[in-house]
Write a structure and sequence with these properties.
elongated; Helix Hairpins; mainly alpha; 15 helices
C-alpha cells in the first residue's frame, strides 16, 4: 500500500470522526492546517496594512495642510488689503468734504486765500484717488490669485483616516486571534504533556508488574520519558511565543531545546526499531535452526529407511549408527549454538555430502554404509535445503550485515504508517457504532417526548389513573434509557477523540521520521561506495547455487518455507529508494 496515500486517508478519516462527535474540541490534524495564513501571519499582514494606511494619511494630511495654508495666506492678505482700501476710501471722502467746504468759502469770499485752499483741496482729492485706484488694483489682483480647492482634499483625508481606523481595528482583531491561537496551542501542549506523563506512569507500572526485580529502566519507559521531555520543551516554546513582549533570544533557545529533545527521542525510537529488528532476526535464526534440525532428522530418517530396505546390509543397527554419525546432527547443532559454524556453512556441507559416491558391493558386504553415502531421495532433500534454506539464510545474513541506516528508519516509518492505518480502521468502526448509538438516542428522545405529551394530556383530562400510572412508569424508564444512551454516546465520542489524538501524534512522528529518512539518504548519498559495495560480492557468490539444480519439483514438499517469501516485500519498499541515494 502506498504509505503517503495511506497516511492522507487516515488523516481525512480522523477529520470526519472528530467533526461528528467532538464539537467542543474539534479534531485538527497537521495535514489539514493549510489555511492561507495563521493568526501570527495575519497580525503581520494587519501591521503592514496599518503602516501603509498611516503613510497615506500622512501624505493626505500634508497635501491638505499645504493647500489650507495657501487659502489662509490669501484670506489674510485680502483682509489686510481690504482694510487698507477702506482706510483710503475714508480719506477720499474726507478730501471731498474739505473741497466742498473750500468751495463754499470761496463762494462767500473769493480772495486769494480761499482760492488757494480750493486748489489744495482739489490736489488732495487727486492724490487720494490715485492711492485708492492703486490699492484697488492690488486688492483685485490678490482676489484673482489661484488657490487649491481644499474640499476634495479634505474628503480624501477623511477617507484615508477612516481606512486607517479600520486597519487598526483589524490589527486589534488579529492580535486577539493570535493570542487566542497561542493560548489554545499552550493548552493543547499542556494536555499532550499530561497524556505523556500518564503514559510514563502506566509504562512504569507495567514494567513493575512484568519485571518486579529489575531496577533498570526499560527502553519503552525511556521512550515514554523522552516524549515527556519533548512536550515539556514544546510547552516552554509555546509559552514563550504566547508572551506579549517577545524575547527572540528565549524563543530561539526554546526552539533549539525542542529540536534537541526530538533528536534524542528519535534516537531512542530508532534504537527500539533496531532492537525489534534484531529480535526478529534472532527469532528467524531460531526458526532456521529448527528447520535445519528437521532437515537433518529427515536425512537420518531417509538413511534409516534405505538401510532397512536393503537386504544386503547385515548389521543394520551399526549401519544406521554410522549414517547418523556421518550426518552429525547433534555436533552440527551444538557447533551452530556455540557460533563455531553458521547455518549457511552447514547447508554447503550437506550439499557436498550429496556428491559422495554410491555404496559399492564391497561396502554392502562389509556391512559398512557410511552416512555420507546418501540415496537419490536424500540428495533431493539436500538440494532442497541448499536451494531454499541456504539461499534464504545467506540473503538474510548479507542484508542484515550491510543494512543502511536509511532502511532502518524506513522500517520505522512503515511501522508508524501501519499503526496509523490500524488505528484509523478501529476509529472508523467506533464511528459506525457511534452512529448507531446516535440513531438509537434520537429514537428514544422522540419516544420520550411523545410519552411526556401523552402523560401531560392524560393528567389534564383526568383519564383513568391506571393509564396515568402506566405513562409515568414508561416516562421514567425512557428517561433512564435516554440518559444511559447519552452517556454511551459521549463515551464513544471521547474514544473517537482519543483515537484522533493518537493518530495525530503518530502522524507527527511519521513526518519527523520521514525528515530523518531524508537526512540519512543524503548522508548515504555522500558515501555511495561504502553503503553499496560490501553487499555486492556476497550476492553473486550465492546466486549460482540454485541454478544448476535440476531436481526442483521436489520443492512442494517444503510448504513450511513459503510463508517466508511474503516477508520480503516488507523490505522491498526501501529498494526503489536505493537509486535515489546517489542523486
Amino acid at each position: 500500500m502506498n504509505k503517503k496515500k495511506m497516511v492522507l486517508t487516515s488523516l481525512a478519516s480522523v477529520a470526519v470522526l472528530g467533526a461528528g462527535f467532538v464539537e467542543s474540541q474539534p479534531v485538527t490534524v497537521k495535514a489539514e492546517v493549510a489555511s492561507t495564513a495563521s493568526a501570527s501571519s495575519a497580525v503581520e499582514q494587519a501591521k503592514s496594512k496599518v503602516a501603509e494606511a498611516e503613510k497615506k494619511v500622512q501624505e493626505a494630511q500634508k497635501i491638505y495642510d499645504e493647500a489650507q495654508k495657501k487659502v489662509e495666506e490669501k484670506a489674510k492678505a485680502v483682509e489686510v488689503l481690504d482694510a487698507e482700501l477702506q482706510k483710503i476710501n475714508q480719506l477720499v471722502q474726507e478730501a471731498f468734504v474739505k473741497r466742498r467746504e473750500a468751495q463754499e468759502a470761496k463762494n462767500r469770499k473769493s480772495d486769494s486765500e480761499n482760492i488757494k485752499k480750493l486748489k489744495e483741496a482739489d490736489e488732495k482729492i487727486d492724490e487720494e484717488l490715485k492711492k485708492q485706484a492703486e490699492k484697488k488694483r492690488e486688492f483685485d489682483q490678490k482676489m484673482q490669485e489661484s488657490i487649491p480647492n481644499v474640499d476634495p482634499l479634505l474628503k480624501t483625508l477623511k477617507t484615508e483616516t477612516a481606512k486607517l481606523k479600520t486597519a487598526k481595528q483589524q490589527l486589534e482583531n488579529a492580535k486577539v486571534a493570535e493570542k487566542t491561537e497561542k493560548e489554545a496551542k499552550v493548552k493543547k501542549v499542556e494536555t499532550e504533556l499530561t497524556q505523556a506523563k500518564e503514559k510514563v506512569k502506566k509504562q512504569a507500572e507495567e514494567d513493575k508488574r512484568n519485571y518486579p526485580t529489575n531496577t533498570n529502566k526499560t527502553l519503552e519507559l525511556e521512550i515514554a520519558e523522552s516524549d515527556v521531555k519533548v512536550k515539556e520543551a514544546e510547552l516552554k516554546l509555546a509559552k514563550e511565543e504566547a508572551k506579549e513582549l517577545r524575547d527572540e533570544g528565549a524563543i530561539k533557545q526554546a526552539k533549539a531545546d525542542v529540536e534537541s529533545e526530538k533528536a534524542k527521542a528519535t534516537e531512542l525510537k530508532n534504537t527500539k526499531t533496531d532492537r525489534e529488528k534484531a529480535e526478529k532476526v534472532a527469532k528467524q535464526k531460531v526458526e532456521e535452526v529448527k528447520d535445519l534440525k528437521d532437515t537433518l532428522e529427515q536425512l537420518e530418517k531417509a538413511a534409516e529407511e534405505e538401510i532397512n530396505k536393503n537386504d544386503k546390509i547385515k548389521d543394520k543397527i551399526k549401519a544406521i549408527a554410522d549414517a547418523k554419525e556421518a550426518i552429525g546432527k547433534e555436533d552440527l547443532l551444538k557447533a551452530i549454538e556455540n557460533g563455531d559454524i553458521s547455518v549457511d556453512e552447514v547447508a554447503k556441507e550437506l550439499e557436498e555430502s550429496a556428491k559422495v559416491r554410491e555404496p559399492t558391493d564391497e561396502d554392502l558386504s562389509k556391512d559398512n554404509l557410511p552416512g555420507a553415502q546418501i540415496t537419490d531421495k536424500t540428495k533431493k532433500t539436500n538440494q532442497e535445503l541448499n536451494e531454499a534454506e541456504s539461499k534464504k539464510l545467506a540473503e538474510v545474513d548479507a542484508q542484515e550485515a550491510a543494512r543502511p541506516v536509511s532502511e532502518k528508519i524506513q522500517d520505522r516509518a512503515d511501522d508508524l504508517a501501519e499503526k496509523i492505518e490500524a488505528l484509523t480502521e478501529d476509529a472508523n468502526a467506533l464511528k459506525a457504532e457511534a452512529d448507531k448509538k446516535s440513531e438509537r438516542l434520537d429514537k428514544t428522545n422522540k419516544t420520550l417526548k411523545e410519552t411526556n405529551e401523552a402523560f401531560k394530556s392524560a393528567k389534564e383530562n383526568k383519564v383513568d389513573q391506571s393509564i396515568i400510572d402506566g405513562l409515568e412508569k414508561a416516562k421514567t424508564s425512557l428517561e433512564a434509557q435516554a440518559k444511559k444512551e447519552a452517556t454511551e454516546l459521549a463515551k464513544a465520542a471521547s474514544d473517537i477523540q482519543a483515537y484522533a489524538e493518537e493518530i495525530n501524534k503518530l502522524t507527527d512522528e511519521y513526518n519527523e521520521t520521514l525528515k530523518s529518512l531524508e537526512e540519512a539518504k543524503k548522508k548515504e548519498a555522500e558515501k555511495p561506495a561504502e553503503s553499496t559495495q560490501p553487499t555486492q560480492p556476497e550476492k553473486p557468490a550465492e546466486q549460482p547455487q540454485p541454478a544448476p539444480k535440476p531436481e526442483q519439483p521436489t520443492q512442494p514438499e517444503k510448504p513450511a518455507e513459503e510463508p517466508t517469501q511474503p516477508e520480503k516485500p516488507a523490505e522491498e519498499p526501501t529498494q526503489p529508494a536505493q537509486p535515489e541515494k546517489p542523486a
